[in-house]
Every structure is written in C-alpha cells, then in structure tokens.
Design goal:
This protein is an alpha/beta fold and 329 residues long. It has helices spanning 21-29, 43-52, 66-71, 86-95, 108-116, 131-140, 159-174, 260-273, 279-297, and strands spanning 11-15, 34-39, 61-63, 77-80, 99-102, 121-124, 146-155, 178-186, 195-202, 207-214, 219-226, 229-236, 239-246, 249-256, 309-311, 326-328. It folds into 2 domains: 11-126, Rossmann fold (3-Layer(aba) Sandwich); 131-256, Dihydrodipicolinate Reductase, domain 2 (2-Layer Sandwich). The model is unreliable at 1-9 and 299-329 (pLDDT under 50).
Length: 329
C-alpha cells in the first residue's frame, strides 16, 4: 500500500473531456476540488469543454497537448478520462499527482502503467452505484456460494465501455479468480459494437453472463443466485426494484437513485486518502479487460458480426398471410 494521500491544495486538472465529464466534475467540485485546467488531444472535445465551462468562476485553462498541461500540474489531483493514456499515466506518477481514473475510458496498458509506477490512483465507475445494481450487490454479499450471475445493461455509452464495467463488476461479485472469458461483439467492429455478450468462468464453477447494449436510454437487469437464494433487480436512472427469494418466500422493495456520480466520487476519494488501489488490483483489472478484448478478436471465437433481421414466416409480401414475426440472429 502506498503512503496515504493528503492533498495540500485542492486543485483539479482534467485530462480528457467526454460527455460523462460534466457530472463527474460537478461531483468533484461539490467536494471542494477546484478545476484549474482541462486538456484533450481533440479540438472538438476542447470546444465542448469551453461550452460546458462558460461562465465558470475559476475559468480553467485549456490545453490541446495534455502532456504539457500535466507538466505544469505537479501536485494537482488529476481526473484522467482519456484513451491511450499510458504515457500520461507515467508522467503523472513521476510528478506525484494523485489520479482519479474514469474506468470506462482506460485500456489495460494504462492500468498496468499506473500499477508499475506505483501511482496513487483510484478508479471511478459510476455504473456500480446505480441504485438497483448497488442494492443487488449489497444483498448478495452474505451469500456463501454464488453459482450464477446475470448482468444486462442498456446504456447510451459504447457497448465496449459498458461490457468492461460489467466484467470488473462481475469479477468482484464472484470474489474468485476468473479462469476464462468468452465474448462476442455484434456490430462493425469490437470498438464500434452495438451489443456485446460475454461469459466469465470462475475458479469455483461460477458462471457470469454479461450483456451490454448500446441504447438511447439506460436500463439494467440483475440476477444473482446461490443454491438457497435468488436476487433479482431492475431499473433505470431514477431507481428500480429489488426482489429476494429464499426458503420459498419473496420480498420486494423499491430502490431510489440518490446520485450515483456522487457516490462513485466519494468512494474513489476515500480510496485515494488511504493510498490508492493496490498494484495487484490494478494488474488484475488490466488482465481481465485484456482477456475480454482478446476474446472478441480471437479468430477461433465467434466472429464479430452485424445483427440481421430475418422474416421467419409470412408477412413479407402483400400476397402472403401476415402471421410472421421478426427474429434477431
């Protein structure tokens, strides 16, 4: 464990700007961190940042060369939300900057760089804090032998980002070593997939089925089962329901979202205060993400493909009876 992180100046540098940055930034600002600079390689991202920060009382500086920004940001807390950021991660570690990493933007190489350099870092994954999902995971903690996990999420984010969040979450629920990952991406390519289906096989026989879909609105379904208890949850951004069945009795409750970004930020800041993530955990997450990506690229696995609609029976022409239906294959 690294030495505890105790910030002397509550300043924040934002490395990378995406659609999820504003709510994360708002949560960080509400906890006393003052943004002083924003950097991104993309001019379009900087334009979006300028629009979002227009009228901001601290008027953060903007850089199109993140490395130059980080060179000037020694000692600042950094929100790292940018792909292909292994070099930036190394620079941050050399300068002693604590790093809050937006987990769904980070490749295995960046996580491994943070681990190798001993960076004080913590991952922010707001998906873990959605009300229905959090309630299901908390209800599953007392279970001793989990045998099945199903996580289905529809999200406006890219399917790959959602699938990676689900993989790390499922591994945490399992609590044992993941032995194999089998995944298929449906779409033009792995990185532009419209849906991803993955199976995680764990050392104790547990199987986790993960489904990530690119959709206009957020929705999730969760099932966690042991030999004695079944937990089901579902919902959207506003909240959802939780049902627990055990010994022939089912209890159902309503859960309400109470700010998943704020909870995710609080969790990450607490971890930074305690010295950041252990290097072993960073390496484990990197290995899991790499296995997921390789599984979709493996020529021996099911090929990446586009979904297509087939007419199963009738209805295709005016002369045929309208008794068919469509099936996604």
């Amino acid at each position: 464990m690294q030495a505890p992180y105790t910030p002397t100046v509550a300043t924040l540098t934002v490395c990378g700007w995406t659609e999820r940055t504003p709510p994360l930034l708002a949560a960080l600002e509400s906890r006393g961190l003052v943004p002083v600079a924003v950097g991104d390689r993309s001019a379009a991202a900087l334009v979006a940042a300028a629009a979002a920060l227009r009228g901001h009382p601290h008027n953060p500086a903007r850089y199109q060369h993140p490395r130059e920004m980080l060179r000037r940001a020694a000692g600042h807390t950094v929100l790292l939300d940018m792909p292909d950021a292994a070099a930036e991660a190394a620079a941050l570690a050399q300068r002693g900057s604590p790093v809050l990493v937006a987990g769904d933007a980070i490749e295995p190489e960046t996580l491994e760089m943070l681990a190798r350099t001993g960076a004080v870092a913590s991952l922010i994954r707001p998906l873990r804090w959605h009300a229905a999902l959090r309630a299901a995971v908390e209800a599953a903690q007392p279970l001793t032998r989990i045998r099945e996990v199903l996580l289905l999420v529809e999200d406006p984010r890219p399917a790959l980002a959602t699938a990676e969040d689900l993989a790390t979450l499922a591994a945490g629920i399992a609590g044992t070593e993941v032995e194999s990952v089998v995944a298929t991406a449906y779409g033009p390519s792995r990185d532009r997939a419209e849906a991803i289906v993955a199976e995680l096989h764990c050392a104790d026989g547990l199987t986790a089925l993960l489904v990530a879909r690119d959709a206009a609105a957020f929705r999730l379904e969760v099932e966690i089962a042991s030999f004695t208890t079944s937990i089901q949850a579902g919902g959207d951004h506003a909240g959802g329901t939780l049902a627990i069945a055990t010994a022939g009795r089912t209890t159902t409750s309503v859960v309400v979202d109470d700010g998943q970004h704020a909870r995710a930020v609080d969790d990450a800041l607490d971890e930074l205060t305690c010295g950041g993530m252990e290097a072993d955990r960073l390496f484990e997450e990197a290995a899991l993400l790499r296995a997921l990506r390789r599984s979709m690229d493996d020529a021996d696995a099911a090929a990446t493909r586009r979904p297509r609609w087939e007419v199963i029976a009738g209805g295709g022409h005016r002369s045929t009876p309208r008794r068919g239906h469509l099936h996604l294959v």
